[in-house]
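Handout for the seminar on molecular recognition.
Each group receives one record of this type.
Step one: identify the two inputs.
Step two: read the structure output and locate the region that could contact magnesium ion.
Step three: write two sentences on what you found, then compare them with the reference statements printed after the record.
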Amino acid sequence: MSIKINPDRPLLVGPEKPHEPFPFALEGTVVKGYGRGSKQLGIPTANLSDEAIATMASGLETGVYYGWTQIGERGSTVYPMVMSLGWNPYFKNEQRSAEVHIIHEFPDDFYGISIRVLVLGFIRPEQNYPNLDALITDIRTDIEVAKQSLARTHYTELKEHGLFA
Ligand code: ADP
Ligand code: RBF
Ligand code: MG
C-alpha cells in the first residue's frame, strides 16, 4: 500500500467560505459496495444507498468532494470525509456510485447504519489511472486536501450544522 501524496497538487481547495451549491446535505444508509475499497486500496469507503445517490445526482456533478459526516445517531461525533461521486473509470463500473471515506479509524464495519453527509467543496473530477498505485496516491492527496481545507473557520463551524443535531 502506497502512502505517497502528489506534491504537485494544492492542499487548500475552495473559497474561504463555502458557496453554492454548498453546503449540500444528504442522508442515506450504508450499503454493500463492490468489496474492493479496503482490500485493494487500504481505503474503506461507505457506499451510499440509491436514494442518497439520486438526491445528489440532482445537485452535484460527478467528482471528488470533501466535507463532514456522521454515522448512526444524531448528536454523535462528526468526522471529516472525502467522497467520490461517479462512475469509477478505473474499475469500469456501469452504475453511478457514491462512496464516503471517513477520515477516522473504526474497529468494526457498520453496514446498514444511517449516514449523514454535508458536502462543502469540490476537489477534482474523477479520473482514469494507469495503475492502482496512481489512484491511491491521488486519494491519499484528496484526504490531505480535505483535512487542510476543512481546518478553515467557515468550514469548521459547519460541524454544528442542523443536519447533525
Ligand atoms: P464495500 O465495497 O462493501 O463498500 P469497502 O471495502 O469499501 O467495502 O469497505 C467499506 C465498509 O468499511 C463500510 O461500509 C464500513 O462498514 C467500513 N468502514 C470501516 N472504516 C471505515 C471508514 N473509515 N470509512 C468508511 N467506511 C469504513
Ligand atoms: N475511482 C476512479 O476510478 N477515479 C477516481 O478519480 C477516483 N477518485 C476517488 C477519490 C476518493 C476520495 C475515493 C474515496 C474514491 C475514489 N475513487 C476513484 C473510487 C475508487 O475507485 C473506489 O473507492 C473503488 O472502486 C473501491 O470501491
Ligand atoms: Mg466501499
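Reference statements: The chain has one domain: 24-164. The chain has four helices and six strands.
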